[in-house]
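Q: What residues go here?
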């Protein structure tokens, strides 16, 4: 009996013209093990384990991969890992947050934005990044209205270096503003946190893309005995028509297969 996959469940990423799997593979754990909010510690996988994880993801029908400069060595590692299969993947990266010596710092200026995207293109060994998101520090509106980041991303899109842009934010106001002018908002939406639902509603009404972060509350969800938290989480997410894809950051092959099987089952219901 073959494993359930997501190959038949790819959907539009808003109005970008891209089609993505309903689950995306988050890669913070490929590059960084400091300052991450997971209930259990983990070891960064070596190249062989990372390559096997990526191969498994592809076999399961995942074509979306999420990275960021703030994810340590994630982008640098993905470049070689994606050689020969670049066209199989939709890559999401970020700008604005840098992570050095265990500390985050932020720069949303036009100059840094362009420099950061050019660096990501080099690290990822590619001529374009499908989607670049502003990695917000929480001051979403101020970043979008007072910094040069969105205008610079729009210019990079016109140049063909990126195919879409948006905001990975923390507020409803920021998410709405990001979608008015951009292509995508990445929002926190899970069984514990649903404050950003108005952003999902706006996206559904206006044909914009939504990526969900912390879909499983970074592993912190506790429900009644006998209730599968993964299934309950994904049922919540995919009941909303605005959701394009949910990013899961697992490096555990069993968890990845379980997540995919659960989503395939939910989306395959008549």
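A:
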């Amino acid at each position: 009996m073959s494993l359930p996959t997501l190959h038949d469940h790819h959907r539009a990423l808003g109005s970008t013209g891209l089609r993505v799997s309903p689950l995306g593979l988050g890669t913070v754990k490929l590059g960084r093990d400091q300052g991450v909010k997971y209930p259990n510690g983990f070891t960064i996988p070596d190249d062989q384990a990372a390559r096997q994880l990526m191969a498994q993801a592809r076999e399961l029908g995942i074509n979306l991969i999420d990275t960021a400069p703030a994810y340590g060595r994630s982008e640098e590692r993905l470049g070689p890992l994606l050689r020969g299969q670049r066209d199989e993947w939709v890559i999401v990266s970020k700008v604005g947050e840098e992570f050095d010596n265990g500390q985050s710092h932020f720069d949303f200026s036009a100059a840094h934005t362009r420099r950061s995207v050019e660096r990501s293109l080099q690290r990822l060994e590619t001529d374009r990044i499908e989607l670049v998101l502003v990695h917000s520090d929480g001051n979403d509106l101020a970043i979008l209205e007072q910094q040069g980041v969105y205008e610079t991303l729009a210019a990079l899109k016109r140049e063909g270096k990126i195919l879409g842009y948006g905001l990975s934010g923390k507020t409803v106001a920021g998410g709405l503003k990001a979608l008015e002018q951009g292509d995508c908002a990445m929002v926190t939406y899970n069984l514990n946190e649903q404050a950003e639902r108005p952003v999902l509603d706006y996206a559904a009404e206006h044909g914009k893309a939504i990526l969900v972060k912390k879909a499983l509350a970074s592993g912190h969800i506790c429900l009644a005995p006998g209730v599968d938290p993964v299934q309950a989480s994904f049922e919540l997410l995919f009941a909303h028509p605005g959701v394009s894809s949910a990013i899961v950051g697992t490096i555990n092959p069993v968890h990845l297969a379980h997540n995919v099987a659960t989503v395939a089952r939910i989306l395959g219901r008549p």
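A: Context that may help when evaluating the design: The domain at 29-267 is CATH 3.20.20.100 (TIM Barrel). The two ends are 21 Å apart (CA to CA).
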